[in-house]
Amino acid sequence: MEGAGAQQAGPLVRCPVCLWELPAAYINSHLDGCLQDSEAGRGGEAERSPQAPSKKMRLSGPPGESSEEEEEEPEGGSGPAAPVFPLFHKGRAAAAPPGTPGAGAHRGAPAAAAARGQERGASPAPACPGPAASPGSHAAVLSGETVAQKLEGKPLADKLRPGTLGDYVGQDQVLGEQTLLRSLLEADEIPSLVLWGPPGCGKTTLAHIIASNSKKNGTRFVTLSATSAKTNDVRDVIKQAENEKRLLKRKTILFIDEIHRFNKSQQDTFLPHVECGTVTLIGATTENPSFQVNSALLSRCRVIVLEKLSVEAMETILMRAIRSLGIRVLVQDEQHTDSASGSSGKRSESPVYIEEKAVSTLAYLCDGDARTGLNGLQLAVQARLTARKTSHQASTQGCSVDGVFITEDHVKEGLQRSHILYDRAGEEHYNCISALHKSMRGSDENASLYWLARMLEGGEDPLYVARRLVRFASEDIGLGDPLALTQAVAAYQGCHFIGMPECEVILAQCVVYFARAPKSIEVYGAYSNVKACLRNHQGPLPPVPLHLRNAPTRLMKDLGYGKDYKYNPMYKEPAEQEYLPEALKGVDFFKGRKT
After folding, report:
1. H or E segment and range at residue 128
2. Helix (H, G, I), strand (E, B) or coil at 418
3. Residue pLDDT, tens place only, 162-212
């Protein structure tokens, strides 16, 4: 006879992991704990009975009965039955929520059922241990007493990763109040997404926030990186997702970092499962999805474009990190003193100060990359702390007896130069060369120099730029300034001779020359008309007229090759004769029409 609590909660279902029987209403939460424990350390501290039990323990029994059914006795003895323990029991009970009576109640069972079981004298079943409570958001909390201790371990950018949408900074055009995506995330209605944006703009952080929210709502969240995962890993996750959906009606969200690293055939693995809803796919990429992600997969996902973080957003992120580290910001002309920092003699570490201008400079130099900004801050602080620790003088540059002082120069020294986003094999490569070409065509010498510098300072091959200038000389300047082609070829040879960084001024000279030169696309347009004529011609191409053919043999002369050809140098005026095939007689490719 089943217990009252079990009857109210529905029929008993056996857990496939620990083989316990419990009401069907609580099987999902119980199974989560069993699976997580078995993955963490299967059987590491499991207590097992001497003999395998023939029947399993129930949650509770009726009054006057034991909660355990009769079990087989060990061979050769008539002693009491061996006690039954869960297969993965680790010698501790799952922690009950505060105020819950019967802390030994089975994981997932209601408090009232556990209390009734104890009142009837039934022994509560040993609980399968659940996972440790997940820590809360640590966006502004760092472990350690001193700044140096807080900087130990993981990079600062990872330690301060926000855990909620409220802590997420930037991307207001996508995640601001009343936006579609934010409403869906808050309602736990997450569609398949492709997050596209530059490094450090918050793609992975947004995925972590979605993971945190989904776990609270019972959704399974799986993370894979395309840089290390294989197709079999994806198939295993999808197979588990199918089982979860069929048996437990549980959703699965699959996050693929750097999804552009998967080739087209690997991306095809997701198609049927995203289509039927087996998994909700979230992919993160720094490359243009139009070129790097399968178009069939793109049609099943919503592309979310994340922009570089603004300077204001970067300052907010940096100030949050500075407060978490316990660093004081000094405004302009403010001096750091013992009275300002408290009784420094009682501190185990000297106080750390940073100039407000240094924070602003770092926000500008990181070029909208939060990871670069936070790591630059960490590097600057650690460098100054190390310099003070190893210094044997009472006062050194940037370090005084009052504390550690971080200036704008220290921040610049850590980054060396502005962090320029440029990928020689990616979309930014084509964006910049297109901007350079259009700026020269528009005769804007300032913009032309800017885009040239963006490419060269980002690591572009100068010979690639020089080759494009050779093309520009004929395509856009042409007969407007015939010397432009000579300039371009000379610039290419100069870059080939001396290389970077000396050749940058050669390219700059050529770019400015082209921006100021008169433009003519007469030749470029005429040749384009010729190509169009050839592509659109129907039937066999017209033969070369006989009088234009060469006649090196007697047979060719007898066939009429070269007959009636007029040798122009023998005439004072251009000789009148047709040079185009008969079918194209009168065509003017420069005017684009037939005269």
Report:
1. none
2. coil
3. 888 888 988 888 888 888 888 888 888 888 999 998 888 999 999 888 888
Q: Over the stretch 571-581, which tens digit does the pLDDT of each residue have?
A: 888 888 888 98
The single-letter DSSP state of residue 589 is T
User: How far is 277 from 275, CA to CA, in rounded Å?
Assistant: 6
Segment 106-128 mean pLDDT: 39
**One-letter amino acid of 255:** F
Asked if residue 284 lies in contact with residue 204, where contact means CB atoms within 8 angstroms, the answer is yes
Rounded Cα–Cα distance for residues 13 and 21 (Å)? 5
pLDDT classification of 134: cutoffs 50, 70, 90:
very low
| Residue bearing the bigger pLDDT, 131 or 180 | 180
Sign of CA dihedral 271, 277, 278, 279: positive
Residue 575: other Cβ atoms inside 10 A: 12
Residue ranges with strand state E in 136-202: 193-196
β-pair type (352-355, 328-330): parallel
Asked if residues 83 and 91 have their Cβ atoms less than 8 Å apart, the reply is no
The whole-chain average pLDDT of the chain stands at 76
Which residues lie across from 594 on neighbouring strands? 587
Chain centroid to CA 29: 32
The DSSP symbol for 282 reads E
Q: What residue type is 514 in one-letter code? A: F
Provide the residue type at 389 as one letter: K
For residue 283, which amino acid is it? G
CA angle 23, 28, 33 (to 5 degrees): 110
DSSP state of 545: P
C-alpha pair distances (Å), 47 with each of 4, 36, 44, 247: 30, 18, 9, 29
By CB neighbour count within 10 A (0-12 exposed, 13-18 middle, 19+ buried), where does 16 fall? exposed
Tens digits of per-residue pLDDT, 390-426? 764 445 455 544 678 888 888 887 776 555 666 666 6
The helix (H) or strand (E) run that includes residue 576 is none
Mode of pairing for the β-strands spanning 403-406 and 352-355: parallel
Q: Is the peptide bond before 63 cis (omega within 30 degrees of 0)?
A: no
pTM of the model: 0.56
Distance separating alpha carbons of residues 469 and 453, to the nearest angstrom: 15
Handedness of CA 70, 75, 77, 80 (dihedral sign): negative
CA gap 512, 444 in Å, rounded = 9
What is the identity of the amino acid at 443?
S
> Which of helix, strand or coil describes residue 184?
helix
How far apart (Å, rounded) are the C-alpha atoms in residues 160 and 558? 90
- 444 contacts: CB under 8 Å, gap ≥ 6: 515
- Nearest residue to 114 (alpha-carbon basis) of 141, 90, 137, 96: 96
DSSP-derived secondary structure letter, 73? P
pLDDT of residue 40: 54
Give the Cα separation of 585 and 578 in Å (integer): 8
Task: Say which amino acid occupies 58.
Answer: R
